């Protein structure tokens, strides 16, 4: 079993790190006792990035099993319960579960046989335990991770989200407008900023651009409460998003005028 990397100085984070990494070792021991288990692959903050474990981190992992064994591991979580009592679980994908352990450790995991793994995109992880027949190279996905979209497409999508979203707000569809502007348009803006960044620090999540955005883009910290201001603040969010888009992408003046006119009409109507 591989030793975990790099300690974390903060006491609370250190306790969380110790608990999570020890729990992985317990899961690995449970799997190693079963002939049909092949490996435990840790991902995310318990994989290669243990330095960012904190009190709110969870366990993300893959279990590799022999062909024909997958169904047994999904049908009966006794192998996980043996590491620590599971008090709740549900099957959220065809391949895996989310589960809560008695002491509050939350798990997200999937079970694969070796033939399936090359078809699964995932950020690189580390093997906590593996049989000799498991290739160490399997800790890295054979499939490419999601690539950033074209900046022009991102800007165009964000602007169209603003136009449609402001119209929905004016119609009285405030929840739909909030989601379109403060979620979809904001996500496109964040993706655009990631593309424009002169320095990529590697801490981003290729599957979710908003993960750790406050740490990666501290210049946004004061602006995010406006960009994601909530149900009653969608017009202000739309204007703030438009300003940011104008700073980072070519925005046709006619489009900017149209959005501002729509928002002013909403504000004038009260």
List keywords for this structure.
single chain; 270 residues; alpha+beta; Beta Polymerase, domain 2; six-stranded mixed sheet; 6 strands
- Looking at the structure, what is the overall shape? elongated
**How are helices and strands ordered from N to C?**
HEEHHEEEEHHHHHH
Please compute the radius of gyration using only Cα atoms.
23 Å
**How many strands in all?**
6
Average pLDDT for all residues = 89
Strand order of the largest sheet: 3-4-5-2-1-6
The helix content is 40-55%
In this structure, how is the largest beta sheet organized? Answer: 6 strands, mixed
Low-confidence region ranges: none
Give me the number of helical elements: 9
The CATH homologous superfamily of the largest domain is called: Beta Polymerase, domain 2
Structural class: alpha+beta
Number of domains: 2
For this structure, the CATH topology of the largest domain is Beta Polymerase, domain 2
Give an overview of the whole structure.
It is a single chain. With 270 residues, the protein is of the alpha+beta class. It has two domains: 11-139, Beta Polymerase, domain 2 (2-Layer Sandwich); 151-269. Helices cover 43% and strands 15% of the residues. It has helices spanning 11-32, 70-75, 78-81, 151-171, 174-196, 213-216, 224-227, 234-248, 253-269; strands spanning 37-43, 59-65, 86-93, 96-101, 106-112, 126-130. Strands 3-4-5-2-1-6 form a six-stranded mixed beta sheet.
